[in-house]
Specification:
The structure is a single chain. The protein is built from ten helices and nine strands. The chain is of the alpha/beta class and 311 residues long. It folds into two domains: 3-207 and 298-310, Alpha-Beta Complex (Spore Coat Polysaccharide Biosynthesis Protein SpsA, Chain A); 225-294. Helix 9 (225-254) packs antiparallel against helix 10 (261-294). The chain is elongated and about 90 Å long. The two termini are 20 Å apart. 28% of the residues are buried.
Length: 311
């Protein structure tokens, strides 16, 4: 297989037909002999799956991976990657913000020896100032905390080679930040600047809570620096405690002091906050270790639909 196109979908009934039409036209025009389009139904509760099944009945190159429930974008993408057989894998979102037509120039760079051609957003249409600000803050924080270089203003939209795909499949993480995992793999990687379109239909499926969880997954998956920062907090707290203790002893011996609840309450609150911050950071890493040691499957596939039938 020359090319695999992977598209996770969650409640995308409004955009599926347009998505399929544009992706199919792009694959037909691409300089590839064989290709497959893999759509992952990530536990949608609208007509997404029924539309997918209708399309797959008419196109033998279309593969539908139906997950048992909603697992989230990164896990759904991992499920699609597990089914891909192409020498190149093209990763795309279902909202059509990332134009599938860019496959052609990205393939040219891949054939020039680039293992990962990742889309870098030069313009982001149809996004609120808050999302743009939050995205910038996230990448700045991730860049500071991460032990590897992860490009800024980049999503999962990319074309990867077979050897990168194989290495990605060998990585057993439960909490997955795929763009970071691909950066960690290395090989030849190159940015491809493009203008990101507004969403074709519907609304974003990433709530503020999901974005926060995604950010935590990204940071904790690629760095132990937060643990080191919590150690710095602890050391600074201990130093401040020593200074306050010395001052208290000095005041008791040389000054006529009256004990007050305000200073005591302030000190207790300050150190309690430091302790809770440090415990929270440590707990996040311990929790991830606990989940990883369970070795549960990342996802459960209910069925795989093809024109030849279902698996």
């Amino acid at each position: 297989m020359d090319l695999s196109v992977i598209i996770p979908c969650y409640n995308e009934e409004e955009s599926l037909h347009e998505l399929y039409k544009r992706v199919l036209a792009t694959c037909k025009k691409a300089d590839v002999k064989t290709y497959e389009i893999i759509l992952i139904n990530d536990g949608s509760d609208d007509k997404t799956l029924s539309i997918m099944k209708e399309m797959s009945a008419k196109d033998k190159k279309l593969v539908i991976v139906d997950l048992s429930r909603n697992h989230g974008h990164q896990i759904a993408l991992s499920a699609g990657l597990s089914q891909a057989t192409g020498n190149h894998v093209f990763i795309l979102d279902a909202d059509l913000q990332d134009p599938p037509e860019l496959l052609h120039p990205m393939l040219e760079r891949a054939r020039a020896g680039i293992d990962v051609v990742y889309g870098k957003r030069a313009v982001r249409k149809g996004e609120t100032w808050f999302k743009l600000f939050a995205s910038k803050a996230f990448y700045k924080t991730l860049s500071y905390l991460s032990d590897i270089k992860i490009p800024e203003n980049v999503g999962d939209f990319r074309l990867i080679s077979k050897r990168v795909h194989e290495q990605l499949q060998a990585m057993p993480e439960q909490h997955r930040f795929i763009r970071g995992m691909i950066s960690w793999i290395g090989y030849e990687q190159e940015a491809f600047l493009y203008e990101r379109d507004a969403r074709f239909a519907g609304v974003t499926k990433y709530s503020f809570t999901k974005l926060m969880q995604f950010s935590i997954d990204a940071i904790s998956s690629f760095s132990i620096r937060p643990l080191r920062i919590s150690l710095v907090f602890a050391l600074l707290g201990a130093l401040l405690a020593m200074l306050l203790g010395s001052y208290a002893i000095y005041s008791y011996i040389f000054k006529d002091t009256i004990s007050g609840w305000t200073s005591l309450a302030t000190i207790i609150t300050f150190f309690s906050s430091l302790q809770l911050i440090c415990i929270g950071v440590i707990g996040e890493y311990i929790g991830r270790t606990y989940i990883q040691t369970k070795e549960r499957p990342l996802y459960i596939i209910r069925q795989i639909y093809k024109t030849s039938g279902k698996k």
